[in-house]
Design brief:
Elements (H helix, E strand, L loop, with lengths): L1 H40 L6 H8 L1 H27 L5 H16 L1 H10 L4 H28 L8 H24 L4 H16 L1 H14 L1
């Protein structure tokens, strides 16, 4: 009994450390995001505040999209780790890939802010490719613990809903990436749908599993 208790406490400790480190990286990514916004606006700060705000609306739009992206990534990351009860060395590397994509986000956000007016299709596609990489990372952080039984057996059905949702998102984001080259408005619309779905992952994964079980 004592051995089982010690194992449970050890697993909880390792999971908590992994989550705490990840939360710190998410916080740094958001900090880098606002620094990129300030750097983009700084060389063109003449003309007063109204002119500054009106002339750089694309920077604020890109910042909002980047912030929502990182926030939604954190929501899904937190949700997944609610079910992960054990860790191993490979899971740390999988989680590291998630954090790599998150910390990369401020760069395509800055590119989108800078080139949204002049090269909107390419800039949005570059930004959107980051979504594709996030979908791959999200699937990995969900599929690996599912396949390696790092979650409780009673949670496997619920967790499988997350895994399927992230798997479908890989296809969705890849298709939307190509849409960026043809229609910026349509691509933004599809990304807005993506925001809504992943802002409430638990609710949409339940609907997905209900539809799957009906077939």
């Amino acid at each position: 009994m004592n051995d089982q208790t010690n194992d449970a406490q050890s697993n909880l400790k390792e999971t908590s450390r992994l989550e705490a480190f990840s939360d710190g990286v998410f916080a740094i990514a958001i900090t880098l995001l606002i620094l990129e916004l300030i750097q983009t606006m700084y060389p063109h700060s003449e003309g007063g505040l109204p002119g500054l705000l009106l002339n750089h609306w694309q920077s604020f739009l890109a910042f909002a999209m980047g912030f929502l992206t990182i926030l939604i990534c954190w929501i899904n990351h937190h949700l997944v780790f609610e079910y992960i009860k054990k860790t191993d060395s490979k899971l740390m590397w999988v989680n590291g890939f998630v954090l790599l994509v998150v910390t990369f986000t401020p760069f395509p956000t800055a590119v989108l802010a800078e080139y949204f007016e002049s090269e909107s299709n390419t800039a949005l596609a570059f930004f959107g490719f980051n979504y594709f990489m996030m979908s791959v990372a999200a699937y990995g952080i969900c599929a690996y613990p599912f396949n390696k039984h790092l979650i409780e057996e009673g949670s496997r059905e619920v967790f499988n809903g997350f895994r399927l949702m992230y798997a479908y998102s890989i296809i969705y984001t890849l298709l939307t990436f190509f849409v960026c080259f043809f229609s910026v408005a349509a691509a933004i619309f599809f990304y807005c749908i993506l925001f809504v779905v992943f802002a409430f992952p638990k609710e949409f994964s339940k609907k997905l599993m209900v539809r799957k079980n009906r077939k």
